[in-house]
Amino acid sequence: MIDERAALPPCRIASPGHGLARVLGLVLALLLALVLPAATAAAQQQPRPGPGARPGQGGPLEVDITQGTLKPIPIAVPAFLGDDPQLALEVADVVAADLERSGLFEPLDRAAFVDRVRDLNAPPRFQDWRIINAQALVVGRAGRAPDGRLFTEFRLWDVYSGRQLASQRFVVAGHEMRRLGHLVADQVYQRLTGEKGYFDTQIVFVDETGPKDRRSKRLAIMDQDGHNVRLLSQGNQLVLTPRFSPTAHEITYMQYTGDQPRVFLMNLATGQREAVGDFPGMTFAPRFSPDGQRIVMSVGEGGATAIVEMDLRSRHIRRLTQTGAIDTGPCYSPDGRHIVFESDRDGSQQLYVMTADGGGQRRISYGEGRYSTPVWSPRGDLIAFTKQMGGSFLIGVMRPDGSGERILTEGFHNEGPTWAPNGRVLMFFRESRGQGGPKLYTIDLTGYNERLVPTPAFGSDPAWSPLRN
Amino acid sequence: MRGGLAISLVLHAAILGWALFSIQSQPALRAPEPEPIAVDIVSASEVTRLRQGSRTAKQLEAEPKESKVEPARKEAPKPAPPVAAPPPPPPPDPPAAKEEPKQETAALQPPPPPPAPPALSLEEQKKLQDLLKEQERQAEEKRLEEQRRAEEEARQQAELKKKQEEARRKAAELKKKREEEKKRKEAEAKKKFDADKISALLNKMPDKGAPRPSVPLDQQAKAKGPVLGAPEGRDQQLSASELAVLKQIIRSCVGPKWNVLGGGEEAQNTIVKIRVHFHRDGRLAAAPQIVNPQSSPFFLASAESALRAVQACEPYPLPPDKYEVWKDTVLTLNPRDMF
User: Which of A168, A202, A310, B231 lies in disulfide reach of A465, CB 3.0 to 4.6 Å?
Assistant: First the structure.
């Protein structure tokens, strides 16, 4: 039984009076009155364009194109003009052959040409060149100057826009006719691809002749298209790994004198040779620094090999690695600040990068297999290498930090890549089974366009010179 | 407390009112333009056939292969039921045949003792002996028959076993053949050169373990219908609206003529934007202009390659009645799909 309970104080809100209810109602009405028009106004102020709205009212039509083609650029190279038609035709043929071999251009068949170029200084009839689907046109003249030297001049036209893209005049010595074509091809290549050309260059390599058990190896130098081969040594001793100096007047190479391999320098103009350094052990795998002042090479001591740098002027020797392992194959970066080399200090041959004074040595190759013969691209963005994996030889590229490894070619005994001076094309040598000897090949860094380089006999250990001009 | 209530109401109203106005002043969210979605009509038979196909097949499996397997499967069970029928009949017979001679011999044994006590005449004895001999002969015949039947039955069982083994062997061979064919077709498909799948940078690693550095390319409107397990990729360029049709007309002409410079150092990041003005008949009203010019020689060469592609395509087959839409166009050429 509950007695009387103390009553709670009355809750004011629970039992509002009439007046309060009216106030509340008014406030609510006010809020609603505010909300509704604001909402409708907001809705009307920004009308959203539906999917069918015409863009013409708002701006131009936007089209995304994300897929193009990798076909070579069709280009027309008619025979050059000149007093000596044979000379002019040969120069034009050199231009067309260089462009075609790069894999980026497709010189059109001259038989299909509609128009004939008669005057170098008159604009061509572009409609006639558009019909055969040429995107660019090279017109030129070549001849012999009164003083016996050879000259050429050319104009490069963009057929669709009708503009002249390049024009130049070159003069060379009387016996260097093919260089005229290479110089013109370099200009055309550079203007149409945005990258420097590589046609006016030479290759130094080891020419191999004779049967396999009595192979004679001689140093040789030739144009990058296989013409004008010249032998530099007699073949009495074994020669290996010739390399160009950045000034292109000297090469350095390794030769066995007696039983000991030594590094030599040879002046290409005079043929003079001298030994580099006076080491008790063997020295090999020499390379120039980008400024041409130093040579970096491997020196053998006992069972190990160290990388050593020698200044050519002062003959001062500096030792860069000392691990007791086999460190060899050094190559400078194009800015001269880093060196990439191969070493087996981790148990198998791998690639390492260090600063030019030997510090900060770190490994960059971590894939399967053994890595060797690293070469830094003249563009600085890639390092090419030879890789052995499961019995096959691969040539690939990777970025200087070791990422982005990409294989360009696989074959039996592919090795020794060397970069063209524009960092776009690689040359290497490969000895296919049953071929009898190694041959030189080139390949583009995209992996396309592998070509055989014609050599008089077999060839190995190629090295690409810098541009001669 | 009335005052408190009023103040509270006023403050609430003030906050709500401020919220309303501040929300109103926000810019409205603009919905992105819907991408055109490819629509394909798929019949039920396509879907049911797909279920029997392989996960990696882009095309539907060829029919002959399926029908080759099924008759083999049907053949294998077929011999089993008819062969199963004969075994049941023979087994019941031998036991029945066996039982009869037993019963007969059992029947034969009791009769001799009873005739022993009564004296029999010679003739009767002879008759008895003849009877006995006949019964023995009959019993022997029956035994021979039963033996023969048993041998036959054993032979039939051996034959049946042989047939079953053969059927099993055939099925295994067929299975192997099918697998080999499948492997061969896959190898062929790998080797077959598909022009739509060109990558600007090749990677020729000999085994499958090498990772692809970039996103695989789109299928260019060749795959038909839904594919089990295959990545859908980006949608095909089939039109779902007029805009998509116009864009596709331009894309299909300029794309194949645009020579991408793939080996340059900055090739992956080079984007060229071109502004084009058209006449009503699809010809260019003026020289196309580069919207985002840069000074590097590589960009200049890429831009000129793109310009040549745009110029090589005229006259563009665009519909004149929609001229207002496409008379002013900006093309963005970005080779990202090729790396």
Answer: A202
Question: pLDDT digit string (tens) for A228-237?
Answer: 999 998 877 8
Q: Which residues of B touch A56 (CB under 8 A)?
A: 324-325, 327-328
Task: Give A389-436 as a DSSP string.
Answer: ETTEEEEEEE-TTS-S-EEEEEETTEEEEEE-TTSSEEEEEE--TTSS
Same domain, B51 and B157: yes
In eight-state DSSP terms, residue B203 is: -
Chain B residues within an 8 Å CB radius of A60: 275, 328-330
Residues B187 and B51 in one domain: yes
Q: Is residue B149 part of a domain?
A: yes
Chain B contact present for A166, CB below 8 A: no
Domain range for B334 is: 242-338
- The answer to whether residues B257 and B177 belong to one domain is no
pLDDT in tens, A110-165: 999 988 888 889 999 999 999 999 999 999 999 999 999 999 999 999 999 899 99
Which residues on B lie below 8 Å from A68 (Cβ)? 255-256, 258-260, 309, 333, 335, 338
Which domains are assigned to chain A?
Answer: 73-193 (3.40.50.10070), 202-464 (2.120.10.30)
Q: Which of B336, B303, B326 is nearest to A62 (CA)?
A: B326
Name the DSSP letter for residue A112.
Answer: G
Contact between chains at B260 and A406 (C-beta distance less than 8 A): no
> A68 CB near a chain B CB, below 8 Å?
yes
Query: Residue B233 phi/psi, 5° resolution?
Result: 65, -160
B187 and B247 inside one domain: no
Specify whether B140 is located in the same domain as B49. yes
Q: Among residues of chain A, what percentage have pLDDT more than 70?
A: 90
Residues of chain B in contact with residue A24, where contact means CB-CB under 8 angstroms, are 9
Q: Within this chain, do residues B187 and B287 fall inside the same structural domain, yes or no? A: no
Residue in B17, B300, B325 nearest the CB of A55: B325
Give the span between the Cα atoms of A299 and A152, in whole angstroms.
48
Residue B102 lies in a domain: yes
CA dihedral (A51, A53, A59, A65) positive or negative:
positive
Q: How many domains does chain B have?
A: 2
Which residue, of B191, B212, B228, is where some domain finishes?
B191
CB-nearest to A194 from B198, B246, B301 is B301
Looking at beta carbons, which residues of chain B come within 8 Å of A69? 198, 255-260
Band (A243; pLDDT cuts 50, 70, 90): very high
CB-closest option in B23, B247, B265 to A63: B247
Domain assignment present for B23: no
The verdict on B337 touching A (C-beta cutoff 8 Å) is yes
The residue among B175, B191, B207 that closes a domain is B191
**The pLDDT value given to residue A426:** 95
- Whether the CB of A55 is below 8 Å from some CB of chain B: the reply is yes
The pTM for the full model equals: 0.66
Closest Cα of chain B to A86: distance in Å?
33
Spell out which residues of chain A touch residue B329, defining contact as CB-CB under 8 Å.
60-63
ipTM entry: 0.78
Chain B, residues 247-276, CB within 8 A of chain A, namely 247, 250-251, 254-265, 275
Whether residue B222 is contained in a domain is answered as no
Q: Does B316 touch chain A (CB under 8 A)?
A: no
Distances (CA, A) of A143 to A82, A123, A169, A180, B81: 6, 21, 12, 10, 95
| DSSP H or E segment with residue A35 | helix A18-45
Identify the CATH number of the domain in which residue B325 sits: 3.30.1150.10
pLDDT category, A215, cuts 50, 70, 90?
confident
Q: Are residues B176 and B257 in the same domain?
A: no
Q: Are residues B99 and B185 in the same domain?
A: yes
Contact A387, A371 (CB under 8 A): yes
